[in-house]
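In response to the reviewer comment on reproducibility (Comment 2.3), we provide here a single inverse folding case reported in full, input and output, so that an independent group could reproduce the run without further information from us. The structure tokens appear first.
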């Protein structure tokens, strides 16, 4: 029931000759760096691609609260608890900005949530991995939020206005998230041998799933070519993955931790690291709903949605009563 649909085959991008006049004018606006706004004309596929990507992104923020929320009551100090609580609340806020941005494209939040629950919309693969101990919370902030920033900073320049504006605010907060994670890792790595071993173990388990966050390799990426032509995406999946590795390896070295990749080498010619690809079979299995926590995550989301029904109904009834009262007074 909760399997996420997996498609293969790279989408073709229309040539100028194949475009209608309206499509050519639209592409010219994109090429000129103009932002597209909700009431502007846009090709159906542009609209669908945005709903898919922004919706998936919104779901990721919300589902992403689960692995961390689980640790709020077990944070080691009051200060860490307050910081984690603020971070998890930020993620809920990011979900809300993004659902609102997607709603400007003509889909409702309820529809997107129904699609998520029916396995017709995805959320990031990373949140299907368990958080086993406190060091995992450090690794998530450092690596997962670090990967999210690497992906999302360029998205501030995405061609769709509401998405671009949501990303500006989100990126500011993500940068605090990444630092709080790295701060936990610094404490653990400089702590007792047991604490350092926990930090290393968290890095070992989260390294490859973090690399998977950037999506399949460019040759397997179904949407990249068209999304880049429309400037919905600014970089390819592999470009961002490379930048993430180049940025993160020195951070691991500073912590005195070892990235779990025997093939990792600095390549002078390309000015970046050579590294091992993640296990793509594992990635596609997670997308099919077979990761370690897919079922738990969806069960928790569906339960939260069902348990909150009385509140949503109450809000609606209250709104209807107020509207009826206003009409009566106006008559
Ligand atoms: N997890 C789940 N699904 C993924 C994925 C991942 N890590 N990477 C790719 N996919 C899916 C795609 O959605 C697509 O499936 P679909 O056709 O059914 O929609 C399929 O795999 C093929 O991948 P493509 O490369 O063709 O897809 P995209 O062009 O959409 O690129 C992406 C994938 C790079 C993730 C892009 O969608 C993107 O940049 N999204 C916005 C950022 C985002 O969603 N981030 C979520 C990260 S978590 C987060 O931000 C929370 C923070 O608090 C940490």
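Designed residues, in position order:
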């Amino acid at each position: 029931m909760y399997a996420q649909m997996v498609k293969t085959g790279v989408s073709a991008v229309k040539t100028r000759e194949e475009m209608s006049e309206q499509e050519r004018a639209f592409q010219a606006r994109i090429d000129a760096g103009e932002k597209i706004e909700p009431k502007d004309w846009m090709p159906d596929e542009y609209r669908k691609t945005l709903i898919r990507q922004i919706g998936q992104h919104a779901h990721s923020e919300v589902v992403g609260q689960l692995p961390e929320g689980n640790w709020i009551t077990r944070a080691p100090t009051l200060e860490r608890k307050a910081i984690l609580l603020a971070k998890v609340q930020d993620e809920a806020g990011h979900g809300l900005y993004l659902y609102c941005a997607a709603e400007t494209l003509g889909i409702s939040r309820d529809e997107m949530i129904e699609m998520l629950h029916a396995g017709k919309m995805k959320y990031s693969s990373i949140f299907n991995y368990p958080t086993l101990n406190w060091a995992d919370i450090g690794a998530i902030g450092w690596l997962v939020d670090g990967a999210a920033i690497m992906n999302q900073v360029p998205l501030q320049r995405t061609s769709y206005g509401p998405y671009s504006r949501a990303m500006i605010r989100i990126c500011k907060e993500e940068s605090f998230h990444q630092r709080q994670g790295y701060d936990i890792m610094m404490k653990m790595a400089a702590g007792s041998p047991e604490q350092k071993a926990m930090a290393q173990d968290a890095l070992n388990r989260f390294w490859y799933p973090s690399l998977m966050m950037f999506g399949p390799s460019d040759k397997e990426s179904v949407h990249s070519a068209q999304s880049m032509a429309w400037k919905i995406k600014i970089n390819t999946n592999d470009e961002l993955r490379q930048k993430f590795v180049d940025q993160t390896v020195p951070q691991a070295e500073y912590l005195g931790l070892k990235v779990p990749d025997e093939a990792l080498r600095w390549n002078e010619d390309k000015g970046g690291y050579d590294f091992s690809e993640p296990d793509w079979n594992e990635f596609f299995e997670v997308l099919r709903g077979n990761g370690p926590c897919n079922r738990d995550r969806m069960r928790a989301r569906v339960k939260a949605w069902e348990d909150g029904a009385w509140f949503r109904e109450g809000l609606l009834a209250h709104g209807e009563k107020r509207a009826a009262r206003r009409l009566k007074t106006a008559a």
